[in-house]
């Protein structure tokens, strides 16, 4: 995987090398209507996205974000799988304006809903988990203008540089 240079925020620091942006497309074959019934092949998407994200972060020497981003990736891809529209889920990970940026597109123009789940519910906590994880890691969360993608950014560790 090639690397590209990203300038640091400090005026005297050398640039960092990060892996090239990671872009994945998962072709969805099963139902996508909020159902828990997910095709076996489709059910592997969140795990694949987590593993690739983890590998990319390790190449970028951003170990401190692995746990947060694995959680966010898992929840976003699972939500896209359950509630998205169309035949493809897109997953992008890269560096934008000196921050790590993750984006998951699901083709659904409705923004994800933050729900209130009672203590016995097995579902309905995804967006709350995502919001808390992004905030805890010092990141930001947002949605594309057309509502079809959810994105989040995370600060890059200043003490870790690759030159």
Radius of gyration: 16 Å
| Number of separate helices | 3
Strand % is 25-35%
Question: What average pLDDT do the residues reach?
Answer: 80
C-alpha geometry: globular
Fold topology:
Elements: E1 3-6, E2 16-19, E3 22-27, H1 45-59, H2 66-83, E4 88-96, E5 99-105, H3 126-136, E6 140-143, E7 149-155
Antiparallel strand pairs: 1-2, 3-4, 4-5, 5-7, 6-7
Helix pairs in contact: 1-2, 2-3
Primary descriptors:
3 helices, two-stranded antiparallel ribbon, globular, 27% helix, alpha+beta
Describe the structure in your own words.
With 163 residues, the chain is α+β, with helices and mostly antiparallel strands. It has three helices and seven strands; from the N terminus they run βββααββαββ. It has helices at residues 45-59, 66-83, 126-136, and strands spanning 3-6, 16-19, 22-27, 88-96, 99-105, 140-143, 149-155. The strands form two sheets. A five-stranded antiparallel beta sheet has the order 3-4-5-7-6, with helices on one face. Strands 1-2 form a two-stranded antiparallel sheet. α1 (45-59) runs antiparallel to α2 and α2 (66-83) packs antiparallel against α3. The longest helix has 18 residues, at 66-83.
